[in-house]
Predict the structure.
Amino acid sequence: MVERLSPLEPEFHVGSHGNFEHGVEILLTETRPGSIVQLAAWPGEEKKLIAAIRAVTGLALPDGAGGGLSEGVKAVFGFAPGKFTVSDEAEGLAHAFAKAVTPAIGTVTDLSHGRTAIRIAGPKAEWVLAKFFAIDFALPAFPVGAGRSTVHHDVFAQIQRTGTDQFDIYVFRSFARSFWKALCHASEEVGYEVQ
Amino acid sequence: MLITCPYCGPRDVIEFTYQGDGNRERPDPASQNFEAWNAYVYDRLNPAGDHNELWQHSGGCRAHLRVVRNTLTHEISSVAFARGNHAPAARRKSEDKP
Ligand SMILES: [Zn+2]
């Protein structure tokens, strides 16, 4: 496989930054999944698509809009009616889904090279993200595993909560560096570490 | 102004794109009924009160929505997916050719 370069590279500075004298309250990383795939079911075929997701990944999607789950290596969440984002540390997920999701069920779009996944974690993760997105980040409104589609200005973002104070943000690769820079600036006040 | 998307929940209006008057009936693309096309392009009810509108949650789930908005107060009394009875594809199938 071709070696994938990070679009964050020129602005990715490992170490502690900002106001961290009293401790680091934000951890920023790039998760670099090998596969990022979007799946869409034709109307009425949603249950078959959810079954295909379970067959390929072993992940059983919970009911409800934006429902999802993450088990560390693989993650899945709904981002629109009948549409799901699935990621995997390993490459080849789109190929596996191309067999399981027949043309009668829906479509498979391989976005592995088209999105960048940024993880923000720490006690101030909700605080920093609330500066970017006008959605409710409180745990009861945005449970662990769930996904949300939203925008930061014109940068479309899919956000999955992968822990009580951890979020994975999928942004367009071409916008990723500027979004990353903005995220670093927004984290300065609480002190952040890039790993 | 908040619009409560049936999928995403309440979101700020900046996440949505207005897609026009929801009262319009688009003629069949092959139609040469100029009165119908004129009405589709130009005729608007312009009510002072509840108004049927089409919006897209473009900065979210990207679903197309049928919204009833009060033009005097901006109060939104109903939001539903546009998909269904009123979706253009379904209407084209059921409509007779002009
Ligand atoms: Zn929505």
About this structure: Chain B has one domain: 2-25+32-87. The first strand of chain B starts at residue 2 and ends at 5.
